[in-house]
Predict the structure of Por secretion system C-terminal sorting domain-containing protein.
Amino acid sequence: MKKHYSFLLFCIILFTSQTFIAQNGLCADIQPLCFTNDTILFPNCFDGSSDCEMFAEVGPDYGCLQSLPFPTWQYLEVSEPGGLEFSIVQNTEFNSDGNPIGTALDVDFIVWGPFPDGADLCDYDSLSNTNIVDCSFSAAAAEDVSIPSTQVGERYVLLITNFTQLQGFIRVTKTGGNGEVACPTESCEGDEVSIQATMTDGMDYQWEVFDGNDYVIIPDETTPFLTVTESGLYRIEYIFDSTTILEEYNVNFNPIPTIVTPSDYIICDDEGNDGIAEFTLSLKDDEITNGDASLIVTYHETETDAFADILALPDLYTNTVPFIQTIYARAENVNTGCFDVAPLNLVVDDSPIIIDPINDLVLDDVGNDGVEIFNLTVNEAQIIGAQDPTGLILTYHITLESALNNTNPIANPTAYTNIQNPQLIFVRLENVTNGCFAIGDFLLSLTSGFSDSDGDGIPDIDEDLNENGDLEDEDTDGDTIPNYLDVDDDGDSVDTSIEIEGIGAGAAPQDFIDTDGDLIENYLDDDDDGDTIPTINEDYNNNGSPLDDDLNNNDLPDFLDPDVALSIAEDVFVDLQLYPNPTQDIVHISSSSFTQETTVILYTIEGRRVANYTIDITTQDITIDLSEMASGIYFAHIQSGERQVVKRIMKK
């Protein structure tokens, strides 16, 4: 339940006021650089030191470095973005102000990066030529390091080598750039952090801890090493090279997040009851974190994976162990990295099974009114099948939504009156123990006792308009086909089945639909809108049906719209001529019946007026110029006195 960090000790040699770190001869021992007042001073690795490596390890690409004697490995962690500039100085001796006062020693370096937080900094494939940021192999005892454009959270690996191989100290000082580096000094409650003296080959070691007022001795802690489990200030005093040294360490343990062990995540099996289902794991996040936004939750198949933070499961996860499987949730604080782990049970419950298809229910429409009383429960034995009915609840619903939500069940399913014909009924079969359910449906329908020979929605009995019992003498449109055999009773080119559309269409008694209010139902009326233009003649686009003609674009077919009355079939003028038609430009309209008040209004096929014309009384001729108009169909509304007619013109 803890997250472990590589822990850098914040230590102060009081007699120099500079920060020291231990020597790290292998990359595996890499430590962060922790600055005090932008400076860090530490012993170098040299020939004769038992704590040092003679040469840097084989594996990384060392770039410009032609030799690799006595290396030390550190890394920089960026806390503020921007460039970073440092100086590296190696000398046999520094004074109390951190300035070199001894013999200058040749120092070299290389920097790789950037690497993300959590990356393996010692992965040799990453310590490659492509990741080299800066490198110097000169004879100087002072080197300048430049790392441009760093970003928060990035890490850079710094290797420093001692070309002279002589004993001394290395000072690293931040000299410029807007970037900043941080020293990770925190761990988590329950961890153990090992701290050690800078120099491990001294003598007379004694560890102390600050009690709020002063440092007090920790009994029996007299080695260079101390294991710490509590936050606080720790100090070690020892003698090195005849000098008494005091080093201080600030250790902080962050709290382990408080998380909730989640309730079982239960899903009903809706695909064969095989115990396998798909879970959306993130639905449990809020329960586990108790709404703490600083916690990030990941899920893992094993507790080991959760503690190691590896092999996180996808959010949409299909269980691999049927019916019940325990996985593990890891909730980690994004600020401290501390975490806790809790088990989560994934449970797949069996769902009831509805035996499909459910038989439809069909009754005779005794009253010929479209409604009857149904016993919905007659199919219950089929629906439940061999399942134990004592553990199941079956309800009936008129909508799918109410069946899914288990709302508004039909109160008396043994005597239900349908509300439409046909009507779909939904059933919900629920397991009373686990709440899992299945949904099915069946159809209620009524059959009429009356025949409809032509299938136009008007029963034959209602096609006997004069009620004399003889269907053969009813022929509204005079086409010699009796109405009971005629799909278009009024001969207006709109089928009867369309003209009776409405509630009850197709079953008697149908709605009384009479657009023009002349008490003649549309299916028997050859002028449905009463505009004096027969319905059959309001087929203005001449495609054989007036259903799609809507010249004024009001979503009302023209044969039902009295405001549109453009007959194209009736000639009321003597010797009316319109030529040439089709035309490419000029059309002439003439008649000996024209008077001096004769006018022509030209419409597009959409019913838009585009031009007006008057007669040349001397020639009894009206000239229409279509040369500037688009190709297509136009209608010419010709009016002279009380006479009027509409003619169609085709422009090529």
Remarks:
- The chain has six domains: 27-183, 203-254, 265-349, 361-443, 450-566, 577-651.
- The chain is about 5% helix and 35% strand.
- The CA atoms of residues 267 and 294 lie 28 Å apart.
- The radius of gyration is 48 Å.
